[in-house]
Structures are given as structure tokens and as C-alpha cells.
TrEMBL record:
Residues 1-20 form the signal peptide. SMART domains: Fn3_like. Residues 669-740 form the Fibronectin type III-like domain. It comes from Candidatus Cryptobacteroides avistercoris. This is Glycoside hydrolase family 3 C-terminal domain-containing protein. GO terms for biological process: carbohydrate metabolic process.
Amino acid sequence: MNRIYRFLVLPLAVLAAAEASGQQAPQLGEASLDKVVKAMTLEEKAMLVVGTGMESMASGSFAVVGQVAKYVPGAAGSTFGIERLGVPPMVLADGPAGLRISPTREGTDDTFYCTHFPIGTLLSSTWNTELVESVGKAIGEEVHDYGVDVLLGPALNIQRHPLCGRNFEYYSEDPLLTGKIAASYVRGVQSNGVGTSIKHFAVNNQETNRQNNDARVSERALREIYLKGFEITVKEADPWTIMSSYNLINGVPASENKDLLTTVLRDEWGYKGMVMTDWFGGTDPVQQVWAGNDLLEPGTMDQYNKVLEGVKNGSISMADLDRNVKNILNLALRTPRFRNEPFSNKPDLETHAEMTRQSALEGMVLLKNDNGTLPLRNVRNVALFGYTSYNFIAGGTGSGNVNRAYTVSLLDGLRNVGFNVDDRLEADYEKCRPAATDGIFDAEVRPAELLPAADVLADMAADNDVAVITLGRISGEFRDRSSDDFMITPSEKAMLDAVTAAFHKVGKKVVVILNIGGVIETASWKDVPDAILCAWQAGQEGGNSVADILSGKESPSGKLPMTFPVYLSDAASSDNFPIDQESAIFVDGTTGAHQDKNVRNIDYTEYQEGIYVGYRWFEKQGLNVSYPFGYGLSYTEFSYSDPVARPRAEGGFTASVTVTNTGDTAGKEVVEVYVAAPKGGLDKPVKELKAFAKTRELQPGESQTLEFEVSAYELASFDEAQDRWETAAGEYIVHFGSSSADIRAKAAFSNARPSAYAVTPGLFERK
Ligand code: BGC
């Protein structure tokens, strides 16, 4: 067992100043916070609001305040401890698909692997808040077991455009689903007595020039779409910390944005936790301290000096600095390090591997299943195609990647559940592993697909019962995906066509597995195979999880948390997104400011579509989509009956609907509740997701009644002219959907009284 309560060495000057301030120093946790703050020297306060720097900065080009943390190698950052006041240091580590630390350490042969759980997008595809909470709980156990205080996740920016490089970490194009899933994750992690950092607050919807991009967005879109998930998470789960984002919002960097970090977050939502910057985010510590960005991470000497200077020259008020210091001390009081808790460095990786395998099943989305192709009943011999089948992708790249001990390929997964996989192409596929990356932030380059010779394919079709083809995509931090990455590549299409022709010729079926982190084009090729399973990036046990679904161990019950459009250009934001642009980001923390400062979609991005993101847009425009929001098939069928909606006396409504499994296998169904508001007044989407629930596993013939409750505030839309949320009076239609495009039952209720909720006027005006 390690004892973790040790302190970083403060610079001598700081210690000397502290000593001069007296001996009987009040101790954090014993004396009041006011007393502790009062006893702090200015230098100590400045140290506390600036992180210790990153490990990689120690011998690098950065001047670092004090000594770099060595508590948990590979952690992204830490804060200074102040021993004389009993203030512990804190260790912060990524997030969000599992804990990210170094798997090896100097001086020991022990390993420090973490479990790579499914990516955020897969978790939201489960639409199962309890399951997400249990995944969060397991992740939080590893955070605690490795002596980390705060996990830098979950990431909950809106999936505004299909090509955002970090969509895999994010949850959905819809803010309600985002908020409910994020809140569950936070509750789960924090049930271990460790913290989370919900990120990136806010409007961080593109990687291209993310440190300098100005998101120009209306207050209505901010409040209804981009802030809503954060609001739900703050109010329902009390995340210990929040990470401000890199980008600007209407001209003001998020970390310097008082409207965002103080007025909305604290005054309106009542947030009591701590706010930190994203790594090297923002440029002006004076503005950051003033705005309510408590901690600057990872921390540089320059920032420390600027905070000192700021106080001395009066541009930073002591009251603001003290407020931020208190928020950090309050966080410290909650941490395992403050409690001096021992940690094992030995998480239960075996149990967690089982958990990630199982949890991934519920987030897999069955997109197509002609003539009951899946599950593979009476199938023994499988022909496996596509490089990715042999080299499954566990998750995305960058800080969202997890240093895991292994990744189960689909090849191994199929063999593990007893399929006999044809080994004819195995050596060829193994030879062509994706090219190595030149750094953790670079997505690997996948080779062109192998096209087996016609006679080989014919033999394989003769000898096997089914063909399984995986199409893989990997993306990550620092770069948005390209339009080519969205499309099926020519070599993939050639493989799909050739394999399908050979297998169909002898009456055998073809299944496509999508091992992807974000939306790809499906409309042009989805008619070719017999079945398509979107498995996302399902964590380190991915191959086993897919094999469990293919073998029919469990019916898929995931539903898409975003729309799959027919064409990329159909997405509402396609004119206002940096498609195929240079990323303009420098990994070393310097900013990638453009010379020109005025390039559309790079230096600034107009959120012209307003609130019409995702299905809100496709429905308004009446556009055909390839797969709609909320879509996903099952191995069984469900019917919906007895839809009811009733107004509540205090506003809002309650609703219920009964779901019956009418098929012949057990399965779970997600019911999505969309509400259409009365006409007149504010411009409204056709309908909006206001609630959802998932049944338990229903046996054939079994029913379950699901109940929903939605408050008047949750029904409200934002009126910019009046600076308030408004719930109109009139008739509301409640749609019970198996997807946004497959409404199975409806009910109406009448809202007799309109209601309104005022907010602070004049926020987020463009600077
Ligand atoms: C990412 C954050 C991450 C941080 C620390 C940044 O580049 O945007 O999501 O938590 O690095 O690794």
C-alpha cells in the first residue's frame, strides 16, 4: 500500500515568505476556510491557482512553477500542496473512456494499466443511465486505486458536425441525452470519493484551430443546445470540477468569460465546485482570475508571475483571487489525498474487463438485419474480412485514449465464443497492420483494403457459412476528420462488392461491422450487405462484445445518438465547419493563431443553424436521412400501447406507455419521448426529445409500462428578446418513438398556464 499524502517542494522564495507569516498556521479542514486563506501569502495563493506544470515540461521549453508532480506518472496535471497549512496537492488525469496514466514506471517491472471502456458515443447509444452509472463507478474505482483525485472527463460537447475529431468522446447531437448520460457517468465516478471534470465548457465543437476559434453563436442556441447538457449535469450530479474550453464564445475566450463561468454557471445554476482551464487554454491570467476560472492548468511560470503582478498592480482584486483560492481549497477538502487514503495501485482489471465487455453490448446499434441474418444461428464457419477485424479499434486518439493491457480483435472474439474463423487470409491481414503513429495525438494511417483474388473468395464462400467484414475509422484530438474519412474508400467498396458477390452467389450472407468513432456515409452502400452492426469503438474487449452480439448471447438494444445523413453537405453546419482544413494546432501548447485572423470556419465559425442541430434540422427541412436519430433494430419486435400524457398541477406533464415484446427472443427497448409544442410564439423544432427510458430485458410476450415526468422548465424554449425561458400555454403532443422517425404512439395534454423563467439580461453579446 502506498501512502499518498506527500507534498511538492515549493520554491524557496515562497517558503521563506510563508515562514515570515507566522508559525501557528491554521490547518485546512480544522480552521475555517477564511482563516486558512487569510494565513496564505500572496505567493502561496498564486501558486495554488496555477498548476505545477506537466511532466513533459520539466526539461522542456517551459518555465515551470516549482517541481513537476511525480505522484502518478502520466497524469495530465497537478496542483501544489502547501504543507504548513495542511493543503494537499491534487492529481488530475484524463479521461473519459477510462483513466489515462503511464502503464510503466521507472524502477519497477510492475505495470499500471487501466481498463479501456467503450467510448462516450457508445455509452450514450445505450440510452441506459443506470448502466452508464455503473461504468462510471468502475472507472472511478481505477481513479481511486491509482491515487488520482480528479478524472478529466466526461466530455460532453454537442456533436454539431459529423467530422469533429473528438465526437467519439462526446455523447450526442441532442442536449437532453447528453446531459442525462453525463450526469449518470459523473454520479458513478464520484461515488468512489474522487472527482470528475466535465468538459469542455463550452461550444468546443471543432478541433481545427480550437485554441483560437471564435464560436459565434446565438444566446438561444447556447442555452438550448450547447449549455443544456452542462446545466443538466451540474444540477443533477454536482461534478466536483468543470474544465473551460479553448475556444472563444462571441469573441471572449471561454476561460476568460465571466458570463459563462460566473453568471450562468454559479449565479444561475448554483454551481459550487471548481473551474479549471483546458491545458494551456486562454491567454490572459488576469482575465481568467476575474472571470472565475479558478485554476490554470497545467500551469506555467509566466502565469504565476502574471497573477502576482496582477494583484500588485491592482488588475486582479484580492477578493477575486481569494474566491478562486477557496474554490480550490473546497475541492481539496473532498479529495482522497486530503483524507490521506491509501491506494492499492492494483485495480480489479479482471472484473472491469468483464464489465466493459458487457456494457458495450447495450450500445451496439443494429442498423440493418434483412431476413434475420443476425444472430448467427446455425453458423459455425466464418470468413473474416477487413484489416480492422484483425486489429480492432478500442477508442480514439489523444487524451481520450487509455493505456490498456490489450485489445481483443474481432478475430479473437469470434474464436472465443466458438466460431471457426477461416485462417486463409490471416497472415496477409496481420502483415498489413496500420502504420505506426508518430505521437499519441496522431491517428494511425490505415492501409488500403486487401482485395482477395476471385478464386480465393470463391473457395472461402464455398467453405464458410457467412462473411463478416469490418470497416474501421479512427480519429482523435487535435484534428477534425476529413470528408474522405466520412466516405467509404474505393478499396473498401471494392472489397465489400467482391465479398458480397462471392457469398451471395452461393446463397450465403454478408455482415458488416462498423468499428467507428463517428458518423460515416452509409447511404451509397448499405443495400449491399445483409446486415450492418454499428459496434462503435467498444473498448479493450471490443471483439468479444461484438462476438456476443453476433452469436445472439444478447440482442442489440442500442439506438443512434445522432443522425446518419445521406450526404455530408446535408448536415446543418456543413457550410460553417472547417471541412478538410489544416488543423492549425500546435501540440506544445503554443497557440496556432492564424496570421490573418479572419478566416471563416478557422478563426471564427458562425453557428448559423442556431438551434437546428441534428434531427432538429433534418426534420425542419424534411431531408431524407440514411439512419435517423434514435434509430436501432433488435433481434425481437416491440409493440407500444396505452399511451398516456397528463398535465401536472405545477406545470409540465407525466406520461406513460406500455411496451410489449412481440417477437420470439428476449430484448430491451428504448422509448424516446419527443414533444411537439403548440404553434405560435417562438419558432420551435418539429419535435424535441424531452425524456427517454429503457425497458428491462423483456421475454417474448412480456410487457413493461414506462413512466416519464417532465417539468415546465424542461419544456421551455429560450426567448432572447425577453431574456427568459418560456413554456407556452396550449396543446402539446407527446410522441413515443422507437426512433425519431418511427413514432409508435401519441398522446396530448393541454398546458393551461404559460410560465416563464427570467435569466440575467445582456449575456454573451459579441465582443
Ligand atoms: C484536452 C483535454 C484534456 C487535457 C489534458 C487537452 O488537450 O483538450 O480534454 O483533458 O488536454 O490532457
